[in-house]
Structures are given as C-alpha cells and as structure tokens.
Design a protein that fits this description.
The complex is a heterodimer.
Chain A (H helix, E strand, L loop, with lengths): L2 H15 L6 H44 L10 H4 L11 H12 L5 H10 L8 E3 L10 E3 L3 H6 L1
Antiparallel strand pairs in A: 1-2
Chain B lengths: L1 H17 L3 H12 L2 H17 L10 H26 L1 H9 L4 H13 L4 H12 L4 H8 L3 H21 L4 H8 L1
Classes of the chains: A mainly alpha, B mainly alpha.
C-alpha cells in the first residue's frame, strides 16, 4: 500500500470518529434568531427611509409654496407707491439724476439713480434721496417734495 | 401573518433537505480547518447563507453541492485568517505544547501537518473524494470546475502528500504506531 493511501485511510478513520459536536437544534435556533434580526433590521431601514422621504417631500412642498407667484410676497411697485397728485408723472429716473447732477454740480450721478431705484418702492411722502457722499450738498437728505425745485434749475 | 407562515414553511423545507447533510458538513469543515469553534461558526454561517438563498435554488437536487460549496469557500477564508493569526499567536503555540501529549492530539496534529502541505483547493478536492466519498461529478459542481481539473487536483494532492510523507523527518511508520 502506498504511503499516502495509508495516510488517507487513517485520516478518514480519524475524521469519521471525531465528533464536532454541533447539534441540529443549534443550527435551527441560529437561523431563527438571525432571520428575526434581519427582519427587524429591514423594518428599521424601511422606517428610516420613509421618514427621510417624508422630510424630503415636506421640504419640496415648502419650497414650492415659497416660490409660488400667487402666494409669494411682492413689494408694491412704483406706480402704486407714488402719489400721482404730488409727483409729476413725467419725472423719470434719468431726469432726476440729471437734476441731481446739476444741483450738486457733480460728474457721477449713477449713485443717485441707484438710490432712486430703492426709493421707488417707498411712498412718495417718505421718499428721500441719500446724497451724503456728495460734498457740495449741505444737507445729506433731500426730500422728494423738493423734486420740483431741483428740476426747475 | 402570512409572511411569518411563509418563513416558517421555508425553514421547515430547508431543514428537511439540510438534516441529512449536517453531520457530513460538520466533519468536512472540521477536517479543513481543524478547529471546533471555527468549524461551528462556519457551519452556522453556511446554514444561514444557504437558507437565505434557498428560494433561489431552482434545482433542489443540487442543494447538497450548493451547501458544500458555501462551506468550502467559508472554510478557505477562515483558513487564511488562521494562518495570519498564527503568526501573532505566540501564547497559543506555547499552550499547544502543554497539551500535545495526549494521543488524540498528537494524531490530529500529525495528520494536520501532512495535510497542511497540500494547497487548499487540492486539499478540498482530496477530502471530498477520499474522505467523504463524493463522486468526481459532484466535486465538479461543488468546486465549480471541470472534471479534468478535479482529477488533476486530486492527483497533485496525493503526489504532494506522498512526497511529504516519504521525506518527512519523523517517518510515517513511527506516526502509524502512535495512531494505532
């Protein structure tokens, strides 16, 4: 008999005699336990996914609500804000700017125009033009009521 | 409720097929890694993996091959881990010497020493064929390789064993006397 065959015979005998000691019940309970665990883990994952989905849905709904033109808050426009009886409708931003330039004798009236852009949203009586940067003006604020005086120059 | 009943039925069907294989599977795993605790882990894990994919097995006749295939792969992974672990496990090596005097431990360690000379794939094929009595075709399915590959693996495993046993420092005759 070859040496390796002899060895294999003894190995076979040893393996079949040796008891590993794993019971069938252990396997059954292990499978049951693990199946229950994975089921619980799966349910937990579903719950987390559902919660995340709800959060996302709520976020999207809020975004749509805020961007909806019907519900969106709009500042009043110039035509509604200006008191037409007090202001001449012919006064445009450019003419005001030109007037301011004449009044202040300054070469850069752009900032005045910008201020007017902001001022347009205010009611006519409160409309003030900030000209603090212009050195030639004694008072930093000009009441919009003086527009007529400015344009008359 | 229905889902629970399905799960119970599935487990019952699985156990009917698994039960006849259990002993052989335990011994197969143990003969590859030679550690009862590790063998227990692997058998548990094999059963669980087979159970989880039980629905996917269309041909239930191949269940045995499927289970042994899973066990073989898990055992290979554990064996590699054991080898790495053994490099750092000085304490265990010292302890082993202390209880190595018993006859059974000596038999097992000598048998294992010889089997460790054979690469894992060849060892697996050799054990399946020589020790557990699987046919070549069954081993083909378990190992997922061709018939010629299986034959080659078994032949090479035997050659390596013969070479080791013939050139071993402790002659196999002496080992035989210890085993008997």
């Amino acid at each position: 008999m070859k040496v390796e065959e002899d060895y294999l015979d003894r190995l076979k005998k040893h393996v079949h005699q040796d008891e590993v000691g794993i019971e069938m019940q252990e396997i059954e309970s292990y499978i049951s336990r693990k199946t229950a665990q994975s089921s619980r883990a799966r349910n937990g994952k579903y719950a987390i996914a559902l919660f995340a989905l709800l959060l996302l849905g709520g976020g999207v709904f809020l975004m749509q609500l805020l961007n909806n033109p019907k519900t969106k808050h709009k500042p009043s426009t110039a035509t509604t804000a200006f008191d037409q009886t007090q202001l001449k409708p012919s006064i445009s931003q450019s003419s005001v700017a030109k007037s301011a330039m004449i009044k202040t004798n300054h070469e850069q009236p752009q900032s005045v125009v910008l201020k007017m852009d902001n001022a347009l949203i205010k009611p006519a009586t409160e409309l003030m033009v900030d000209l603090a940067d212009y050195n030639n003006i004694a008072s930093p604020l000009i009441d919009i009521a003086d527009y007529e005086n400015i344009t008359s120059h | 409720m229905e889902q629970n009943q399905d799960s119970v039925q599935k487990q019952h069907d699985f156990m009917v097929l698994y039960k006849p294989l259990h002993n052989r599977l335990c011994k197969f795993v143990h003969s590859m890694i030679w550690d009862k605790e590790d063998a227990k882990d692997i058998v548990n894990e094999t059963a669980l993996q087979a159970f989880e994919r039980f629905d996917q097995i269309k041909d239930k006749e191949k269940f045995m091959s499927y289970v042994f295939s899973i066990a073989g792969n898990l055992a290979k992974r554990r064996y590699k881990l054991q080898k790495v672990k053994a490099l750092f496990d000085w304490v265990k090596a010292d302890n082993q010497e202390a209880w190595q005097h018993s006859e059974q431990t000596l038999t097992q360690s000598e048998l294992r020493k010889a089997l460790d000379q054979v690469p894992f794939k060849q060892r697996r094929a050799l054990l399946l064929f020589e020790v557990f009595g699987f046919s070549y075709n069954e081993i083909c399915t378990i190992e997922n390789c061709s018939l010629s590959a299986v034959k080659t693996r078994i032949f090479q495993a035997k050659t390596k064993l013969r070479h080791y046993l013939a050139n071993d420092e402790v002659p196999f005759g002496q080992l035989k006397s210890v085993i008997v």
